[in-house]
Hints:
Blueprint: H1 2-16, H2 21-33, H3 35-57, H4 61-69, H5 71-90, H6 106-118, H7 121-133, H8 143-172, H9 178-201
Helix pairs in contact: 1-8, 2-3, 2-8, 2-9, 3-6, 3-7, 3-8, 5-9
Amino acid sequence: MLELFLKGFIIGFAIAAPVGPIGVLCIQRSLHNGFGVGLMTGLGAALADGVYGLIAGFGLTAVSHFLIKEQVWIRVIGGLFLIYLGIKTACASPCQQTASRLDRSPWHACGTTFLLTLTSPLTILSFIAVFSGLGLGSTNTHYTYALALVLGITLGSGAWWFLLSGGVAFILHHRITPRIMRIINAVSGAIILACGVFSLKM
């Protein structure tokens, strides 16, 4: 049981660690709005990882087949959302006081990345591959074992986002000038926008 939890923790941490559009968004929000918003940005992705972990771990083949079958539309929705976020990020003011209340809301930050991660078909495919490699996710898997693994995945993913947002917010936040913040916003927005365009062309 503990071994499965630790395996899940390592899997969640490893899947979250590569810096993609969510990582860029987490870094930008941590710099722009502080640790709380940055952390909730990452936790939205961690919760989505947990949902996909449940689907793969409990052998919910009907759901996973639907997600794979409809991945074109899911990718379109996710891509358009990324393009919107990319433009919004690039145009963001470096002055925290000018940010809207919605932009500074931790729950808004969590919800946007939760939806973004859910609309990534690669996430469910990654979890199915990992669970198949571990011999889990079939109808023979005991629910308690699957739950321990899924809990480990969610906490492992959350741990990565805690470290990333905390490191950026507490180490770099106060050293960034408004001019540098404008550059960071522009570069972050461009990366997120490019990921959205790439998602639409896949």
